Amino acid sequence: MTVLLFRFDYMNKQEPEYPSAFLQSKTEPPAIAREKELFAQLQSQFPRQFEKIFPDKLAERTVVVVPSLTLDQEILSKVKGHFFYEERMLCLLMLLRMPRTHVVYVTSVAVDPGIIDYYLHLLPGITGYHARQRLTLLSCYDASAKSLTEKILERPRLIQRIKQHLLPNAPAHITCFNVTEYERRLAVQLQLPLYGCDPELSFLGTKSSSRKIFKTCGLLVPDGFEDVKTKEEVINCLTTLKLRYPHLQKAVIKMNDGFSGEGNAVFYYKDAPANDTTRHWIAEHLRSHLKIVADNLSFETFFEKFELMEGIVEVFIDALIKTSPSVQCRINPLGKIDVLSTHDQVLGGDDGQVFLGANFPANVEYAAALGKQGFAVAEELKRYGVLGRFGIDFMSAKENDEWKHYAIEINLRKGGTTHPYLMLQFLTEGDYDADSGNYYMKDGKKRYYFATDNLYHECFKGLTPHDLIDIAMCNGLHFSNATEEGVMFHLITTLSQYGKCGLVAIGSTPKRAKACYNKVIEVLMRECGLAPQQ
Question: Residue 271: how many CB atoms within 10 A of its CB?
Answer without folding.
Answer: 8
